Amino acid sequence: MLANNVVRLNNNNYIYEHIQMFLRKKGLKSDKTSTSYSKGIKDFFSVIKPNKSIEHLTIEDMELDLDDFDKFILESVDSEKYSNKTINAKVMAVKSLLNYLHAKKIDGKNIVSDISYFSAIEKLPENNDGWGILTIEEVLEMARIARVTEYRSQEIKYYFILFALDTCLRKSAILKLNWSDFEEKDTYVLVKAVDKGNKEFRPKISKEFYNKLLSLKNGNEKVFQLTGKSINAMMFRLREKMNFPKERRIVFHSIRKAGITFHYRVTSDPLSTMKAANHKDFNTTVRYLDNNDYGAIGAVSSSNELDLELYKNVPHEVLLDVIGKMKKDYLIILNMELNKIQK
Q: The Tyr recombinase domain covers which part of the protein (predicted)?
């Protein structure tokens, strides 16, 4: 009975028979399971085999590897379209299909020959804050590389990355921005954004940075004339160019985390940082901070080990040398304080 309901295609597309059989068997448990698995499989192959519909997948298309799964996972995260839980479910659906095809044979050969890499496919943390964090230097370098190596819209992508760092906005919110969403004040420019959950968010940027953004204005109401897909593709290329190891789990969201960490370093104010991140709870914000900034050795313990007057007693050249080796975050904070003195 089951076999009679399977759609038979020509030999080149023979694999579709088995995918249909797999989905119908899942449907015996519940229609919802079959529908969920079908969508997960289609979404996966739309990324891995973008020029093919699921009906035209061949046996060769089923020979996947760890890189294919990494690509799907990272692009799905960068798209901000799905939660980590949903991405995990889609990956599970594809693994289940491949495991099923591994057990089946055509002409005496397993349809899928190798699934040994399955154990290396890491499940995503089901809170979306488990992604790696970038340093300020890395984000600035990422923007620079995008500006000189991207094939299209180099300048827009350059400022897109910097804007994400400066405002801590999510990618989806930035893509929605129109020029009318900027409101100039006396000393800053207010950005009227709509972030996750349709929450209004009002970050500020400097007038100097805003004036640089105006160089992108070309009569179009959209500030950043990009798509989520083009940003995802850019991030894939930038990860490779910057040789980030997979263990760091760098995604576009990592830029937002860098911006939030920088805000905390500048202000040392949990409430201000929570506001900058547009969070309701500081426990959420803590998950965004670099581990070096939160939960590190305490001030009393540190001061017991250090001479807090040491900077006053070293030669000027030594002090400058040490300052030059500090993280860019701290150099920015230092220069901000110097600017206050000079005004």
A: 129-302
